[in-house]
Write a structure and sequence with these properties.
Radius of gyration: 14 Å
CATH class: Mainly Alpha
Order of helices and strands: HHHHHHH
Number of strands: 0
CATH architecture: Orthogonal Bundle
Structural class: mainly alpha
Length: 135
């Protein structure tokens, strides 16, 4: 497993746990022992980025997640989407296809087959519309 994949999964763990517990993900991240590995730094970047842009990310999810509102969507899928959308829209050094493929792979591993297909569809629309999205 690549360092970036580990970082995404670690960030997902923090975002998911924080949402379930109703606590600030950044405080949760800071309460854990720091890792010296590069994935620790990227995990922190992802958590901070999702938090900084959360309202816009959630607005985009609501807009393009046809047939699902945020409350009906499984928390794990919601947070996979948040990380991927952050990477697609705000991580300029990362190819969009990598962000989408990683989100799908993580969903297949952690969530359901249906979730990975759904996440692929939502992210595909966002990548297509990226040039006209106001962020």
């Amino acid at each position: 497993m690549s360092a970036r994949r580990k970082a995404r999964k670690r960030a997902l763990d923090f975002l998911y746990e924080a949402e379930i517990k109703g606590v600030d993900p950044q405080l949760l991240l800071e309460s854990r022992p720091p890792t010296e590995l590069s994935e620790g730094q990227y995990s922190q970047t992802l958590v901070a980025g999702v938090l900084a842009h959360k309202s816009k990310i959630d607005e985009i999810i609501v807009m393009y997640a046809e047939g699902w509102d945020m409350d009906r969507m499984p928390a794990i899928d919601r947070n996979i989407l948040r990380i991927a959308i952050y990477e697609i829209l705000w991580e300029s050094t990362l190819d969009d296809k990598i962000a989408v493929d990683e989100a799908i792979s993580i969903a297949e591993e952690i969530s359901t087959k249906e979730s990975s297909s759904y996440i692929n569809g939502v992210l595909g629309r966002i990548v297509t519309l990226k040039p006209v999205l106001v962020i």
